[in-house]
Amino acid sequence: MKVLLxxxxxxxxxxxxxxxxxxxxxxxxxxxxxxxxxxPKDNNGNLAGARADIxxxxxxxxxxxxxxTSNWGVDVLGAWPFQHDVSLKxxxxxxxxxxxxxTVGVNYHFMPNAAWSPFIGVGVNYTNFFDTHATGALHGxxxxxxNSWGGAVRVGFDLKITEQWFTTVDVRWANIESDVKxxxxxxxxxxxxxxxxxxxxGYRF
Length: 205
Prior knowledge:
Layout lengths: L3 H18 L6 E12 L6 E2 L2 E5 L2 E11 L4 E8 L2 E7 L3 E9 L2 E7 L6 E19 L8 E3 L2 E13 L4 E10 L2 E6 L2 E7 L3 E10 L1
Antiparallel strand pairs: 1-4, 1-15, 2-3, 3-6, 4-5, 5-8, 6-7, 7-9, 8-9, 9-11, 10-13, 11-12, 12-15, 13-14
């Protein structure tokens, strides 16, 4: 997060300056509907002294972006709740949880009017864990995973179909680290830090 904060500030300054540099650019809304795979990094920390692994999950997504100029935009990412299994080495799956990861980002589109338009972005992610319950060796115990704030980055490209319709492929990374408790006692921190692979259909209006 400390590394990403200067980038977020710089991007915000770019947006503030953009209207003067691109006075002829028209405002536009961009809606993307598709799907994403949340793939947590390998080795998600130690919980109760055992190595933890968190499974991947695929769900539908929706993304709304407002273009301040032809190059600069701010987007909000939403999704159907993702579901993950939490496994401990030697014990197998011990918990299951669901999460919603709304993310707000500032994006720069390098060639907004081209048929192939790459972009990069930085932002902030909030991950809300809910419906967490114990399974397997921990069945009957109470398990909770704390919500998380962290930085996020994004790279991708739009591929034009018509003047209004296009496809988008992107990759995101989010800093997600959450305290885990069993029966009210902290047993460690889950270091998820996932890569998120997305594909969607977009419409400009």
